Predict the 3D structure of the following.
Amino acid sequence: MPSRISDFQISESENTPGLYSLISINGFLPAVKPLKRLPDTYYQQWERILDDLPALLREKTIRHEVNKLEVLTTARLNTEREWQRAYMVLCFLAHGYIWGGHTPSEILPPAITVPFLQASDHLGLPPIATFAALNLFNFTSAGEDFTNLDDLKALHTFSGTEDESWFFAMSVVIEARGASIIPTMLQAIDAIKNHDYETVTRALDDMATCISQLTPLLDRMSEKCDPMVFYHQFRPYLAGTKNMAAAGLPNGVFYDEGNGVGEWRHLRGGSNGQSSLIQFYDLVLGVDHASANKHGTRKGSSAPAKTAPGELSFYEEVSLVRLYMPGPHQEFLRRVSQMDKIKDFVHSAPASPAQQRLRQSYQDATKALGDFRQAHMQMVTRYVIVPSRKPAPSLSSEVNLATASLQSDKSAAKDLTGTGGTDLIPFLRAARDDTYGAGLAVASQDVSAIKR
C-alpha cells in the first residue's frame, strides 16, 4: 500500500502525514468543502435546472426543461472537485427526470446520459445517484470542520425541505466523526506482524469508543426530519433502476447516448450501505456477511434469486457494494482486504492475560458496530416501515418507490423495498446479526477454552 492514505482520496492531517498517522481529518469525505457551482459558465444550463429542481419537480416540468438541454462535453472540467460537482449535478438531474412525473421515465435523454457516463467513468462510479453523490459531494459547512451536525447542510435537495438537508447532513457527520479511527486501525493491522497485543487491543478499544459515539447521532434524525416528509417527499427520488418493476421500471432505464446508441441499465439507488467507512469497519473487524445469502430470495419463493448470465446476484453485489463507491475508495478497501486480519490474530492468539484483553476488546468493538446497526434498523422502522402503513397524502398519486411499497402487504415489513432495490428488513437484520456474530464467535472460543 502507498505511504499515504491520501493517495486513495482519504483526507489526512497535514501535520502528521503517512499511512499510520494518528489523525484523519475527514476520512472518505473531501479534504475541503465541495464546490457550490461549476466555475465555467458553459455549465450554467445544468446549474440553472438544479437551482430550480424542487419547483420543477412539484410542477412536473423537469422533463420539459431537461429536454431543452444541449449535450455538453465534460472536456472543460479541470479539477477533481469539478468532476465531483458535475457528477453530483447530473445525478440530481437524472433522478429528477426519471422519477419526476406521474409515471417514471424509462429513457434518460442524451443531454444527461452522455456527460453522466463520462463523469461516472472518470470517478469510477456508476451513473446513478450514489451515496457519494448525495452525501460526500453534496454538503457545505460553516467551516472546514465537518464534525458538527448543526453546522452542516446539503447543497441541493429534491424536495427543497430542511428535512432532506438534515437527512443528508446526518450521513456526512457520521463519516467525519468516524474518520479518526481509520489510521488507528491501519496501525493496529501493521502491529500484528510483531504480535503487538497492546497496540491492537488499544486500537480496538478506540474503535469501540468511536462507534459508540456515532450511534446516538442517529437519534438526532427526528430533530429536523419528519418521517412522512422523508417517505413521501424525497425518498422516492433516491431510488435506483434495479428491482423497480413494481414502481414502474420493469426493464430498468435506457441510457440514450443518441444516434441509436444506448444501453438498458439496472442500477441500485443511493444507500448508506455504500458508505466506505462502514465497509472499512467490517473489513478490519472481519465481519463476514456471507450468511446473508440465505436471505437472498425472491419474494414468494424459497429459492435463491436467479439472475441473468453474467449478472451479480443481490448478495454477491452486496459483498461487492464498493462498486458504488468512488474508484480510489474501492482500491483502498481492496488493499485493506489483503492485509493481515485482526480477527485471525484474535482467534489465533495463545491463552494469556494479554490475549484475554485482546478478545474482550474485539468483542466490544463488534458489539459497538452491531449496536450501531441495530439503531439504524430502529430508524428505518420509524422512517420507512411506520410511514408505509399510514395512508398516503392525497397528492402522492404518481408511481414511485413510496407508492409501490404501499401496494405491498403492510403487515409484511420484509416486503418493503429499499432505495437500493433491496428487501429492506432482511438485509439490515442479516448485517446486524453477522456483526454481533463475529464477536460471539470469539466468546464461544473463550468458553471452549475454559471447558478444556
Remarks:
- Residues 15-23, 293-315, 407-414 have pLDDT under 50 and may be disordered.
- The first helix runs from residue 44 to 51.
- The beta strands are 107-108, 139-141, 152-154, 253-258, 261-265.
- The CA atoms of residues 20 and 183 lie 5 Å apart.
